[in-house]
Amino acid sequence: MDWLWEASGASSGSIRGIQRPEVVCSRAGQKGRPLKSTSKAPSDGRSLGREISPSGSMLVTEEACAAAVPGATMPQEPQQTDFQLVRVRSTWCRIKKGEALSNDEDEITLSEAKIGERISEGGISWIIEAPIYFCYKVVETYNILEPSNTTLLWGHITDPQQIELATASKRKLRRFIVIDEVVDKLYGSKVREYFEENNVQHKILALPTTEETKSMDLVLNILHEVQNFSLDRRTEPIIAIGGGVCLDIVGLAASLYRRRTPYIRVPTTLLSYVDASVGAKNGVNFLQCKNKLGGYTPPMALMKHKGLFDLLKSHGKYLLDTKFQSCNSFAHHGDAALQTTRIAIETMLEELAPNLWEDDLDRLVDFGHLISPELEMRVLPSLMHGEAVNVDMAFMTYVAHARGLLGAEEKEQILQCMRGLELPVWHSGCSWALIQRALRERLKHGGGQPRMPLPTGLGVADIFNDTSEETLERAYKLWVKDCKMELEEELQAQGDGPARSLSCLPL
């Protein structure tokens, strides 16, 4: 590919090194008049009938001109012609699909994009197929704020030649950094020291990035500061340092500035480390609806990998006590924290990469994201994002059990794993009415189908569209009954104090 996407971006794919065809250029109203011929005409004097549209002008064919002239003769039967696109020097032109390219010395670029032209009595239409190529880099590194670690300077570049050119350039480096204000209080001095030691001109914008402030107002605030910094959108990526909310907000701002500005995400929470930092989506809340504008926040895929489930079940308390920090060397694969986060990242990438634009709406990574958006916004700030997702997953585990997909023992193993990680498995704000409302909203965004990911065992799952309301209500009643009973038992065991594990959270 002849274009690189740095951390955030897109490009049409193309194939380099194919010899250019012989072409005759024409433009509307100047039939046969050369615009910028790039090769000789065929030796037999015939025209190949290919046309080039100069940059900034619209290509109009003979047939299109005829369609626009009153009384012009149009074909009785619709005519369909498929074209592929080639670039000769700096001009793109179309040639009929399957037509051979002549041998010549000059290099051309053949695009994967295609144009289909259909001429009928009603006029002319074009169908454009434009494949979009995405390339982004996920880096796991230690001591990212050590001045000798260049990840924040060059880590977003994937092409070794571009890294060589960038490091050899005498142009002063510039970076615009958005950092969560809590992270700034903890690590702000080290962030500033990092850029000062590397002689980088920088601007650091510390902001309160929470679900309550996750809005277009904050995005516009960032964009004003970016404009004042006079950012070069090609060579100066925006850096976001914070949790998932911070990464979402900055990602949307970067995507809006000059329509697409590269950005680097530095996650500072466990959830953003294995979730928001891995995918290519962003967004903000709108009208009390989660991520209504922009992209989406992909969930953590727990159920598709039994090894991950076993790790969390066996080492959950240790991982919590050590805050998922690795105490061993970078290459030590026996480390539970490293294994857990790496499996989470790898399984997330396996799900996201083939379906980055969500053309396929059947996504296992939507597990935990059917009712949690409605619940999270309803009870703010009672539940954090990951907690709301877990409440959703707990309920869907009961739905799978009610459908006969999970046995009672498997259901209990999943819930015990959640409790072992001190995650809530129920919230009194998650009423039956809220669940019904959330699932109706789901139908709007799922093409009329619920597309419900449900576990069918430990480490395996499938998508279901035929779960009845009776099954959902039966699962809900059992879920509430079990969780209230669990809460009462915990309260009795601890006297009058609160249940320590918070496995059931009342409002």
UniProtKB/TrEMBL annotation:
A Pfam family matched in the record: DHQ_synthase
SUPFAM superfamilies linked to this entry: Dehydroquinate synthase-like
Domain of life: Eukaryota
Signal peptide: none
UniProt KW Nucleotide-binding keyword: yes
Ranges where the 3-dehydroquinate synthase N-terminal domain occurs: 206-310
Keyword NAD: yes
GO MF annotations in UniProt: 3-dehydroquinate synthase activity; metal ion binding; nucleotide binding
Region Disordered: start-end pairs: 26-53
GO BP terms: antibiotic biosynthetic process
UniProt-listed Gene3D superfamilies: 3.40.50.1970, Dehydroquinate synthase-like - alpha domain
InterPro entries xrefs: Dehydroquinate_synthase, DHQS/DOIS_N, EEVS-like
Keywords: Lyase, Metal-binding, NAD, Nucleotide-binding
CDD domains in UniProt: EEVS
Name assigned to this protein: 3-dehydroquinate synthase N-terminal domain-containing protein
